[in-house]
Amino acid sequence: MLCIIGLGNPGTQYSATRHNVGRMVVERFGEKQHIPFRQETQALQGVGAIDSHDIKLVLPQTWMNQTGVVIEDLFLRDEVLSRDLVVVHDDLDLSFGTLRIKTRGGAGGHNGIRSILSYSKSDQFSRLKVGIGHPPSDTNVADYVLSPFSSSEVASLEAVLSRAVDALEVLVLNGPEAAMNQFNIQQKPEAEA
Fold it and tell me: Could you give all domains of the chain from N- to C-terminal order, each with its CATH number?
């Protein structure tokens, strides 16, 4: 069973911030696949299937830098293996709306990924990175990631989320290599008409 984790911070004050785009993607994916979430230990979780592929969706209810606690619980309680994880998260080093799928690697400065790596003791898990762009040089990085999207980004956000949901679906059905081949290309997000 693939376990798809949408990174973000809990609470309505963070729900529309750049740092929560991974959570937004997994919420949309759950809606599209008709998988409801319910409260479990330290996370909202939903279980379902796409074709014959069983999946578990997880939205941690911990702070971003404590995400690893939720992963540890999944490993111990549900016997999930690191290779069965798909982590969806924001990425400062990708321009807004750019998607990048990887199957291993370091934290790249992301506190949620750093926490997962510390608990899983492995970098052998898939990631769907959603670009949020880098802040201007005079802007604090923490303030930037915890701020809402700009009005121009909001105009394109639905298209970005929809494309990321499509990428997750390809990853589940056809594997990470197929998803990389289809989505690891530069594509400028278009505003909704």
Answer: 2-183 (3.40.50.1470)
